[in-house]
Amino acid sequence: MFIILSAAIAPGLALFSYFYLRNQMSTEPRRTLFQAFIYGAFITFPIMFIQYVLQEEGVFASPFIANVLFSSTIEEFFKWLVIFVVIYGHVEFDDPYDGILYGASVSLGFATVENVLYLLSFGIDTAFMRAILPVSSHALYGVLMGYYFGKSKFAKNDKATEYLLLAFLAPLILHLIYNTILSFEDYWVYLVAPFMLFLWWLALNKVKLAHQHLVEHLIEQKKYN
């Protein structure tokens, strides 16, 4: 049991540490980030409950609708909702890079609990593959979501609402593509590798841009101090 739990939790902690340590300009309170992680963990259960009920009731006409369209949408919506309701207006969300950290925290909270439940059900043999695919992809969706939340919070024009919408739509589109690839049973393995490389490139590019926004934000703050 301990080995399974360790294997399930380790990828999420490693990915979060990576994005946390990349922020060299300021240090976000660990307590607030941990709370964001817990919020992400909690939403796993209502999401799974809704998916189970709708599946048992035969609401979905096809597996594609259930496993790709609905699954992607409900997971990204709940993550977006948690950040918007609990984190977006928080006093600790005080620079653009914070969005990256909070987005990753919420997403990894969800991905970690999902990973624990999956490994408890199917065994540790799938741990490595899940670490590099679903856990990593959730973290990267969270980075993208958090980037646009950061853009929205510190927007100086009328684009705040547009960025909020992008915070939901951008990770949703990527999640839909990922789940669609996995639905191709015969050749998904040939498509998922280039997609994950693209996802990492996109997320790291957003991290770099968030750092630039942070520097600009700090310079602007000094002007008024």
UniProtKB/TrEMBL annotation:
- Localization per Swiss-Prot or TrEMBL: Cell membrane
An example GO biological process term is: proteolysis
Q: Keywords in UniProt for this one? A: Cell membrane, Hydrolase, Membrane, Protease, Transmembrane, Transmembrane helix
A GO molecular function assigned to this protein is: peptidase activity
Q: Which InterPro entries match?
A: Peptidase_PrsW_arch/bac, PrsW
Where is this protein primarily located? membrane
Q: What is its EC number?
A: 3.4.-.-
Q: Name one Pfam family in it.
A: PrsW-protease
Report the transmembrane regions from the record.
Answer: 6-21, 33-52, 64-88, 100-121, 127-150, 162-181, 187-204
The GO cellular component terms are:
plasma membrane
Membrane protein topology class: Multi-pass membrane protein
Family indicated by similarity: Belongs to the protease PrsW family.
> What function does the entry list?
Involved in the degradation of specific anti-sigma factors.
Protein name listed in UniProt: Protease PrsW
Native organism is: Ureibacillus manganicus DSM 26584
